[in-house]
Design brief:
The protein has 126 residues and is of the alpha+beta class. It has 2 helices and 7 strands, in the order ββββαβββα. The longest helix is centred in the middle third of the chain and has 13 residues.
Length: 126
Amino acid sequence: MTEVAAALIREDGKFLICQRPAHKARGLLWEFVGGKLEPGETAAEALVRECREELDVTVEPLDVFCEVTHEYPDLTVHLTLFNARVTAGTPRLLEHAALKWITPEDIPAYAFCPADEEILKRLGKY
């Protein structure tokens, strides 16, 4: 099982999504910023590191929005999605193909990674 931490970053009624690079698994699908935990790292520590590496921002992990386990053909992920806020910097593209701020009503217009489907259902209820 691969442990993954991701951030639900909200601002002005919208939340941040990122498009995976074309050359990676599930390329060009949309996701929440984050990534795999490194050995000895907590989910919150991984989240801070991944946001710095991928978006050049410092985030503060808040509470856990939800946890999801999803089986892909090539791996099983346990995703911990934190509510988080940016404390320094402005998101910029360091790894992703694109980033967008969207509302829950915008969700159907984007093709997301399958592991995010349950999360998106919950967000759509807000």
